[in-house]
Design a protein that fits this description.
CATH topology of the largest domain: FAD/NAD(P)-binding domain
CATH class of the largest domain: Alpha Beta
Number of domains: 3
Number of strands: 21
Protein name: FAD/NAD(P)-binding protein
Pfam family, one: NAD_binding_9
Strand content: 15-25%
Largest sheet: 6 strands, mixed
Structural class: alpha/beta
Mean pLDDT: 94
Length: 603
């Protein structure tokens, strides 16, 4: 008779571990792709996923619920989704879900406040965690990640603020979002001058995080930057201080001040606000994109032994793509404003080998200059304008803003929306080229990511009320005689002085000057390389590159701090979603790596 014995199991191997640093929209999007791909690539096994972020998961810092309801989304609710569809070129499965508009039951054209978007993102996070297969566990750490250490071929250690022992990870993914940065030389000098002379200097920052209390009622404030950060600043310093808008019954707004507002003197390189969001729906045939800048063109650029230059090699292709979309829409939707058939024009447009040829062709086929696409004039709208005084400039700028509002809400000018669609297509292709420099991102935002129309109506009301004053283009700021002085090329010779200066823009993303200690240490140790100041990654799957250009097998990065960044806006439904494609590639690479580990444990 066999004897009985007790079998004592040996120590169990720990489950593989993945650490995601950053639990905002990008970290949540990566987690969603892990949930989508795990049934195929990681079925029946255990995995510990650690989310590290001091802010709530889903919204993260930028979309947290604890911020002013005066701060709006910059996209219509119908144009914001966190879910993939069949237009995304990816290997993983599509897992559809509602847009912000569908989830919140708000109008599709609504510009929701950021608190509502934060609630949507929190819901997406919760749904994503619930969709993870059995055995995949999520652990939240509401702390900052300070550094990552570990050998290339071994487990990594992620050190957290206030935690004596690190998290041990088989893989680390950095989804850090937008980075704070130390001041550059100019900003350091301005800050030092402000301290010496008891002035107010607010450097580039996220407006919702800036302390605006030092900006006194009635006092002039110089504001450098006329983009979305300025729009936030404008809202917080006017309505946020008790002012209100009233409809004057003629379609315009009147601003009723509270008396607690400063006087904002705003200028920038262009000297004008970003173009208004388009205020009509698309109807009819869409331009067949890509046409002149598609995957084959990107392949050819990447294959060049000597590399490529954006202005010389890429921009002509982009310019032709945008022009093609513009004229396709004009000729097919508004043929009465052209003098030749589309097929004839398209053939000659495709054959043109220079911008000069295109201009001659367009001049012969499109009689009204307002129907022609001039990207140089769009980029520099105040070039050639010289005003005798700042009072004269106010009338010029109010006319410019009114004209922009009228055009961007007029479906007879729907070629503008066709250019917008082409910009999205181009952005999807440019992601493969890595970072192409700051000019393109600024130009894209200026044309495609401007404020909602109501914000520009508010600007006009504030201008008429004297709370907002325009300074013009090529604004410069000097610190002299105990004050800040601003000048522009639009009003020559004249200067406006103030004791307060606000830099209304986000910090430029830079690994060298980032305040994020984790990235800074990776860069200092040579474990991370940069391209135009951004973290260099393998465009195929987001693996972090070291200074030798070698991808790290256990470290990945996604988002605007990398040279594979895409548009800062959320993905619009049915537009291919480059961020979705990147998230899917990284998720699949991570799951494939983890599934091959010898310590992989069964659930």
């Amino acid at each position: 008779m066999p004897s009985s014995r007790t079998v004592i199991p040996g120590p169990r191997n720990p489950a593989p571990s993945l650490v995601i640093v950053g639990a905002g929209p990008r970290g949540t999007g990566l987690l969603e792709r892990i949930a989508a791909n795990a049934p195929e690539l990681y079925a029946g096994s255990e995995l510990d996923v650690h989310l590290v972020d001091p802010y709530p998961p889903g919204g993260g810092r930028i979309w947290r619920l604890a911020q002013s309801p005066l701060l709006w989304m910059n996209s219509e609710a119908q144009d914001v989704t966190m879910f993939t569809d069949d237009t995304v070129d990816m290997a993983g499965p599509v897992r559809p879900g509602p847009t912000l508009h569908e989830w919140a039951a708000v109008g599709g054209r609504t510009f929701a406040d950021r608190q509502l978007q934060g609630a949507y993102l929190s819901w997406v996070y919760e749904q994503t965690v619930a969709a993870l297969p059995p055995g995949v566990r999520v652990h939240r750490h509401t702390r900052r990640a300070l550094r990552v250490t570990g050998p290339r071929e071994g487990r990594q250690q992620v050190w957290l603020e206030g935690r004596p022992r690190p998290l041990s990870a088989d893989l680390v993914v950095l989804t850090l979002g937008h980075l704070d940065a130390e001041l550059d030389d100019e900003q350091r000098a301005l800050a030092a001058y402000a301290r010496k002379h008891d002035l107010v200097h607010l450097p580039p920052d996220f407006t919702a995080d800036s302390d605006l209390s030092a900006l006194s009622p009635g006092e002039p404030v110089l504001v450098r930057g006329f983009g979305l950060a300025f729009v936030d600043l404008m809202a917080l310093l006017t309505e946020g201080r008790g002012g209100r808008y009233e409809d004057d019954g003629r379609g315009d707004l009147t601003y009723v001040p509270s008396g607690r507002e400063p006087v904002l003197y705003v200028g920038s390189r262009r000297g004008v606000p970003y173009h208004s969001k388009i205020g009509y729906d698309w109807e009819g045939e869409r331009p067949p994109l890509p046409r002149f800048f598609g995957p084959a063109d990107v392949d050819a650029l990447l294959a060049r032994p000597a590399g490529f230059d954006f202005r010389r090699d890429v921009w002509p292709l982009v310019e032709k793509e945008l022009g093609f979309a513009h004229y396709h829409r004009l000729f097919t939707a508004h043929p009465e404003r052209t003098t030749v058939d589309w097929t004839d024009f398209e053939e000659k447009y495709a054959a043109a080998t220079s911008g000069a040829e295109v201009r001659v062709l367009v001049a012969s086929a499109v009689p009204d200059p307002a129907d022609r696409l001039d990207l140089t004039a769009l980029d520099r709208p105040l070039d050639g304008l010289r005003c005798g005084s700042y009072d004269e400039l106010q009338d010029e700028l109010r006319t410019y803003i009114r004209d922009d509002l009228t055009r961007r809400h007029n479906p007879l000018r729907s070629q503008d929306q066709a250019v917008f669609l082409a910009l999205l297509s181009v952005y999807g292709q440019l992601v493969r080229l890595g970072d192409v420099g700051p000019w393109w991102h600024g130009f894209f935002s200026y044309l495609a990511s401007g404020p909602p129309g109501p914000r520009l109506r508010q600007m006009l009301a504030l201008s008429r009320a004297g709370v907002l004053r325009f300074l013009g283009a090529d604004m410069t700021v000097t610190a002299e005689d105990g004050v800040f002085r601003a000048r522009s090329a639009t009003v020559r010779g004249a200067a406006v002085q103030a004791r307060a200066l606000v830099e209304a823009r986000l910090p430029h993303p830079t690994v060298e000057r980032t305040r994020d200690t984790l990235l800074r240490e990776l860069y200092a140790d040579g474990a991370a390389a940069t391209a135009e100041g951004l973290l260099a990654v393998d465009p195929a799957d987001g693996r972090v590159l070291d200074r030798s250009g070698i991808p790290h097998p256990r470290r990945f990065a996604l988002g605007p701090h990398t040279d594979a960044r895409g548009s800062g806006a959320f993905t619009r439904p049915r537009t291919g979603g480059p961020a979705f494609r990147q998230n899917d590639a990284t998720a699949r690479a991570a799951l494939a790596f983890l599934s091959a580990l010898p310590c992989r444990a069964a659930a």
